[in-house]
Amino acid sequence: MENIKFKDNWDETRQRFDAWFSNKKTDRPLMRIFAHRNPDELPCEKLPELPFDDFADQYLNVEKNYARAANFFTDLKPMAESFPQFSMNLGAGSMALYLGGEPDFAEDTVWFKHFITDYDSFLPFKYDPDNQWWKTHLDIIKKQVELTKNTDIMVCIPDIIENIDILSAMRDPQTCCFDLYDYQKQVASALQNIQDCYMTYYDTIYDIVKKDGVSSYTAFDIMGTGKTAKIQCDFAALMAPDQFDEYILPSLKYQCDNIDNTLFHLDGKECIVHIDSLMSIEKLGTLQWMPGAGNPGAESEQWYPLYKKVKEADKGLWISLTEYTPEEAVFYADTLVRKFGAKGFYFHFPNMTESQAEALMIKAEKEWRIR
To answer: Is the confidence at residue 2, as pLDDT, over 80?
Structure first.
């Protein structure tokens, strides 16, 4: 592809994201909207999509994945704050591979083989520039940048992940639960090592993918001027508040101090117990709420106390409504805006027709204005 532009309002999008991450007012809520293009008005010809050879090829073949990414944005028009992006992850938590793990490629994810049998044999964890999977991932990212250089598609920083989520991927979650009682010093040392390595991995990738001083992070549809990242601790669902504050909170603060634009991925109602600690992180910009399987959707009144705390902390709130019809999603977003005000929301809407998208944009401009 040569000089293909899939999106028009780049400057507005960047400005709104920068304001959202820094807790400043935007003119309306941020919105992820993709509209089906008219088949007669596609921005370019679609690329042939070759089948993957196997599960490993699905995660490692840059050219085949690029064709799928480019065709997605050829078919679907990025409107409002949605933008064309290209992600290639070696699973959720690729730092586990960079630190010595091995992948088990599956159709829907990448599993990590547990290999930390005892702390004395493996600590300290250190950055290894010659690690096979680190070098492989860097080669993938460099090829992504090369393939997208004549388009406005952004190459995303992959899902590196951090803290005890990485340790549990290398050791296994159940054993880590016992380690918090039986090997407290070793766990603390391991988490410090992981923290020390994180920014080295992040900064190396950021320097490769940044585009005009802007970066985007995989899977969460976020971008911003400078360094941008989703941070998390899914293992927090298994931790008491005092454990979370001792082992995890300092690492999260460190990341927020060193990354310009941060989104915390709060996954499941078991993690809500830590919301006060998370909201105490001064430089944390925004929070993404994922209710988790089997729980009411993000629109449910059950989560209103959580939203109230995020709003009171003056932080942005990422809400997905993609599992609903466009009409239902707009209704639920409207309900949340009327309850909590428009400031700080970033709504993810399901794919829709262009006329539905235009009607939503008009509604947001007229009814969801931030005063």
So the answer is: no
Does some domain include residue 3? Answer: no
Is residue 151 one of the residues assigned to a domain?
A: yes
At 201-212, the pLDDT tens digits run 999 999 999 999
Q: What is the mean pLDDT of residues 45-56?
A: 97
Q: What are phi and psi of 345, to 5 degrees?
A: -80, 145
Q: Output DSSP code: residue 41.
A: G
Task: Return the DSSP state at 246.
Answer: I
Q: Report percent pLDDT > 90 for the chain.
A: 98
Asked if the structure places residue 2 within a domain, the reply is no
What does the pLDDT average to over 198-222?
98
Q: How many domains does the chain have?
A: 1
pLDDT tens-digit readout, 22-35: 999 899 999 999 99
Tokens of 366: 């007229």
Amino acid at the residue 206: Y
Answer whether residue 4 is part of any domain.
no
Q: Rounded to an integer, what distance in angstroms lies between the CA atom of residue 64 and that of residue 48?
A: 9
Give the Cβ contact number of residue 54 at 10 Å.
Answer: 10
Task: Give me the domain span that covers residue 142.
Answer: 10-367
Q: What phi and psi, each to the nearest 5 degrees, are found at residue 225? A: -70, 125
Alpha-carbon span 159 to 161, nearest angstrom: 6
**Structure tokens that stand for 173 in this block:** 């979650």
Contact of 20 with 316, CB cutoff 8 Å: yes
Examine the pLDDT at 219 and tell me if it is beyond 80. yes
CA separation, residue 3 to residues 40, 47, 353 (Å): 20, 15, 26
H/E segment holding residue 174: helix 173-182
Do the Cβ atoms of 190 and 170 come closer than 8 Å? no
Amino acid found at 13: T
Q: Which of 160, 362, 126 is nearest to 259 (CA)?
A: 160
d(CA 28, CA 315): 15
Kindly report the CATH number assigned to the domain that includes residue 343: 3.20.20.210
- For the entire predicted model, the pTM comes to 0.97
Residue 1 has pLDDT above 70, yes or no: no
